[in-house]
Amino acid sequence: MKIKIKSSDSFEQNYEKLFELEKMINLEEKKEYHYKDEYGNCKIIDKDDFIEIFRYGQINSKQIFKNNKNTLFTYITKQFHGKYEIFTKKFEKENGKIMLEYDIIDGNEIINSINLEVQFIDI
């Protein structure tokens, strides 16, 4: 199985890549998807009412997405340590796809708006 990550933001940065899904854990209360991207090991945790995305490696990050809620976002590199909030404007899951639209907030200022689509593909 493959995982396709596609995103665009308010700075017109577009990203689309296909990765090998290394591990999938399917439990009653959650699903976990593990893969590696160019920055490290990644894990997506899909629960009924929220999504968590983790990355460990060159970039370390933790994002939590809950529809119409502010949640925490931590972003760490060797040179930088940032703590932000995420406001999730769109949260949809259907037919092997997760679609998120969210703002990254620093203090009271929106510093970026992102559309993220995660698609699971049987190959």
CATH class value of the domain at 23-54 and 61-106: Mainly Beta
Taking pLDDT < 50 over at least 5 consecutive residues as the criterion, the unreliable ranges are none
SS summary, helix count = 0
Lateral arrangement of strands in the main beta sheet: 1-2-3-4-5-6-7-8-9-10
| Series of secondary-structure elements, N-terminal to C-terminal | EEEEEEEEEE
Distance between the ends: 6 Å
Shape: globular
Mean pLDDT over the residues: 96
What's the CATH H-level homologous superfamily of the domain at 23-54 and 61-106?
Calycin beta-barrel core domain
Strand content: over 45%
Share of helix, binned: under 10%
CATH architecture field of the domain at 23-54 and 61-106:
Beta Barrel
CATH topology of the domain at 23-54 and 61-106: Lipocalin
User: For the CA atoms, what is the radius of gyration?
Assistant: 14 Å
**How many strands?**
10
* Main sheet overview: 10 strands, antiparallel, barrel
- Helix/sheet category: mainly beta
Please give a structural write-up.
The protein is mainly beta and 123 residues long. It has a domain at 23-54 and 61-106: Calycin beta-barrel core domain (Lipocalin), CATH 2.40.128. The protein contains no helices and ten strands. A ten-stranded antiparallel barrel has the order 1-2-3-4-5-6-7-8-9-10. The termini are close together.
Primary descriptors:
123 residues; mainly beta; Lipocalin; 10 strands; globular
Q: What are the SSEs and their pairings?
A:
Blueprint (H helix, E strand, L loop, with lengths): L1 E8 L4 E13 L3 E8 L2 E8 L3 E7 L2 E6 L4 E7 L4 E14 L2 E10 L2 E13 L2
Antiparallel strand pairs: 1-2, 1-10, 2-3, 3-4, 4-5, 5-6, 6-7, 7-8, 8-9, 9-10
